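Ops channel
N.P.: pipeline sanity check, posting one input/output pair.
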């Protein structure tokens, strides 16, 4: 399960949406076939939902949310992030911003800095689109976390959203 989830995210990030979709399909079959499949799905739910939305499969993302085990805190937070992603994809930006803000606070308390930053980034995106205050502030908070993690693609996303597109940082360092 972890390998399939990671591989799907890598393929989606590389732009191979067909490969990402195929890996998610395999993952869905494995969830039902393996003991612990639903638990592991819960561990990777937020990433998988982001992949599904990016490759145009929100219905698959909804199905994954329904299948995942949500019994432990980590999985509950993954579902919260997944629901925020789905709300944003549906255009329900106010709902998405609220869910992202809740997810950001809860991921911060949980101690998962990458998901904390991703939730701040999502809230910032929604608030900027809605032309509401606080979007830039959330981007700056996300930027501070992502800088320490050296999460270059997400930092580039913030730069672009703020109107400061740059050559990707990872290309500048080579």
């Amino acid at each position: 399960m972890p390998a399939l989830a990671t591989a799907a995210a890598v393929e989606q990030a590389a732009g191979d949406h067909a490969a990402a979709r195929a890996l998610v399909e395999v993952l869905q079959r494995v969830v039902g076939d393996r003991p612990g499949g639903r638990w592991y799905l819960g561990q990777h739910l937020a990433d998988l939902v982001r992949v599904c939305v990016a490759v145009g499969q929100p219905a698959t993302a909804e199905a994954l949310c329904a299948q995942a085990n949500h019994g432990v805190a980590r999985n509950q937070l993954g579902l919260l992030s997944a629901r925020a992603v789905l709300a944003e994809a549906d255009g329900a930006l106010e709902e998405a911003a609220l869910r992202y803000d809740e997810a950001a606070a809860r991921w911060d308390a949980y101690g998962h800095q990458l998901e904390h930053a991703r939730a701040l980034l999502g809230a910032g995106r929604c608030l900027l689109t809605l032309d509401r205050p606080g979007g830039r502030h959330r981007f700056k908070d996300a930027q501070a976390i992502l800088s320490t993690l050296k999460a270059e693609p997400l930092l580039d996303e913030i730069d672009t959203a703020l109107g400061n597109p740059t050559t990707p940082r990872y290309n500048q360092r080579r």
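N.P.: looks fine end to end. The CA atoms of residues 32 and 120 lie 33 Å apart.
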